[in-house]
Amino acid sequence: MAEVEEEVTISCGGAATFNISRVSRCGCQECEPSKSYITGVVVGMKRAVEKPITYCQFTIGDDYYKADDKGAFKFEVPEDKTRLTAVFVDTYYGEYTPTSRKYFA
User: In Å, what is the CA distance from 4 to each residue of 1, 15, 63?
Assistant: First the structure.
């Protein structure tokens, strides 16, 4: 039996859409615990133009992460969590107000 991976789209109230991959089945070996990731791009509005917020820092609980030079980010969802709150802060340019987003599994 081969590994089966499916693409799942999560919409965050029209503000953002995330695509995640989920492995639903694997075979021929003992399965490793499944892992879920949330990926996306942090964007903000400036003069009515949406643009990525580069190097944006965000926290989930006590863990700190950073978006890259294109505003892209990826983090692993802890196995024991069904709900996360991420706080995004523009620490690089300081042009945007900190924003919180909630993610549900």
Answer: 9, 30, 31
Residue of 4, 84, 55 whose CA lies nearest to 76: 84
pLDDT in tens, 4-13: 677 877 777 6
**Domain residue spans in the chain?**
4-104
Using one digit for the tens of pLDDT, what is the confidence trace for 49-102?
888 889 999 888 788 889 999 999 998 888 887 788 888 899 888 888 888 888
- Tell which residue, 40, 43, 41, has the closest CA to residue 19: 40
Residue found by looking up tokens 């109230």 in the block: 13
